[in-house]
Design goal:
Blueprint lengths: L2 H14 L5 H11 L6 H13 L4 H10 L6 E8 L2 E8 L5 H7 L7 E16 L5 E15 L5 H13 L17 E7 L10 H4 L6 H20 L5 E6 L27 H19 L4 E6 L6 H14 L6 E3 L6 E6 L2 E6 L8 H8 L1 H6 L2 E6 L5 H5 L3 E4 L2 E5 L8 H6 L8 E7 L3 E8 L7
Parallel strand pairs: 5-6, 6-7, 7-8, 10-11, 11-13
Antiparallel strand pairs: 1-2, 2-4, 3-4, 5-14, 9-10, 12-13, 14-15
Length: 444
């Protein structure tokens, strides 16, 4: 393309958009030239055109289009819940300047995206000398702030656990040499789960029902355990304490649960934490208590957060010792008993071998070996395998106090007794007794 033609095209482009950025104008010039110019050539030509002597028409157009020092060209647009703001100005140079200008309420909104650019515009002054003006284009898109995240919820839980009143120190029970050890399993209570009897064909379930069932079953089991006068009581949390793991009401892996979740996350944490903390507090009136926790597939984040809450809650209570292990498989021994605990959603078929690998010394010393698992609390009834013996290891699947929700009912994973279990172990003789407690069936 001839140089004169390029010059004329550049002049027309500048006249049509006197406040446009050099890059935008260069792209337009490339388009109009039919691709005969590269973007860099077009950008240089636009820059030269703007700084060269302008025609009276061009000078007048640029002067009229260039904002005065006091002008602020700002527009705002609402699109649903979002707010967009744009400015072309000399004074509004940054995103922060634009937010301040539109008086954005940053307690309600957060920045979703933003952009700030600067370019120069040359105009001829009254004396014919070029005047270079800096212009700034700023864009910001705001969206409503989300609810509290996991971090904020955990911080609130820790604050609630510590309490505003200093908890008094509590001494351990005096050591008494006995030959019995008790285990109380808290498996799959699913605080926050919602089930509606007309929709599932089974019982209702919500936060209040979950709290009441856990309290009643735990009280019954602790009373039964107390009759054996155990040396120690282990409260084992076997995962899926909470139904959802984040404000989006999904599992740790992202499975959506909004349709089967009762209440907001904050309420779920408050009711669930209070109920779960009550179990070792009540058991500590009978004997010294150990607690351990393995995460579930629904609530890996909140399970570990709850373990941290227990550490803070019982820091001054010497009767309760909280495990500081954060692994998905944990072990304890008592006499000749080796017991493993896991949720059961991973590596369940290899548990006997893993016990031998991970605890070789205890394996050789303890002839009584058991795994306590959860997870398949309703599927276990279908497979008829709540207890199995594999490679000389007893593998137990604990029941849940929760009722089937829509997902379990639709897939036919129903029929397992809704209950909690407690076990009494003899130091030299393995399992000595087992107790089960759950809601009673209503008479017809």
């Amino acid at each position: 393309m001839a140089w004169d033609a390029v010059t004329e095209l550049a002049r027309e482009v500048c006249l049509r958009s006197p406040t446009g950025s050099p890059t935008e104008l260069a792209k337009e010039l490339v388009r109009r030239s039919g691709g005969s110019l590269t973007l860099e050539q077009a950008r240089c030509r636009i820059r030269r055109q703007r700084t060269s002597s302008a025609t009276p028409r061009c000078t007048r157009a640029l002067r009229e289009a260039t904002p005065k020092a006091t002008d602020e060209h700002v527009t705002k647009r609402h699109d649903g819940d979002t707010l967009e703001a744009r400015s072309v100005s000399r004074k509004i140079k940054t995103v922060e300047d634009l937010l301040a200008h539109i008086e954005a309420d940053l307690t309600r909104y957060e920045v979703a995206s933003s952009e700030a650019t600067k370019w120069e515009v040359a105009t001829a002054g009254d004396d014919g000398e070029p005047i270079v003006t800096e212009l700034f284009r700023v864009f910001v898109k705001l969206k409503p702030k989300a609810g509290p995240g996991v971090k904020e919820c955990v911080e609130a839980m820790l604050k609630a656990a510590s309490g505003s009143v200093k908890r008094p120190k509590v001494a351990r029970h005096k050591p008494v040499k006995r030959d019995t050890f008790a285990v109380i399993n808290v498996a799959d209570p699913h605080f926050g789960k919602y089930a509606w009897r007309p929709g599932t064909g089974f019982g209702d379930y919500d936060l209040d029902i979950a709290a009441r069932r856990l309290h009643d079953a735990s009280e019954s089991l602790i009373e039964s355990v107390a009759r054996y006068k155990p040396e120690r009581i282990l409260v084992a949390y076997l995962g899926d304490l909470f139904h959802a793991d984040n404000p989006g009401l999904t599992t740790t892996g992202g499975t959506p649960l909004a349709g089967s979740t009762d209440g907001r996350l904050q309420k779920m944490l408050e009711v669930g934490s209070d109920s779960l903390l009550w179990v070792p507090e009540r058991a500590a009136k009978v004997a010294n208590v150990d607690t351990l926790l393995v995460n579930g597939n629904h609530d890996e984040t909140l399970s570990w957060a709850f373990q941290r809450i227990m550490i803070e809650r019982f820091r001054r209570d010497a009767r309760v010792a909280v495990s500081r292990e954060f692994t998905g498989r944990q072990y304890t021994t008592y006499g000749k008993n080796l017991l493993g605990f896991t949720h059961g959603h991973r590596a369940k078929k290899k548990l006997p071998q893993l016990m031998a690998i991970e605890r070789p010394d205890d394996w050789s010393r303890c002839p009584y070996r058991e795994w306590h698992t959860a997870h398949l609390h309703h599927q276990a009834a279908e497979a008829n395998a709540p207890i199995q013996t594999v490679d000389a290891v007893v593998v137990r699947t604990a029941p849940s106090l929760s009722t089937p929700d829509d997902y379990h009912a639709t897939n036919g994973w129903v029929g397992q007794r809704e209950a909690m279990e407690a076990f009494i172990y003899d130091a030299a003789g393995g399992l000595a007794a087992m107790h089960v407690s759950g809601p009673r069936m209503k008479s017809a």
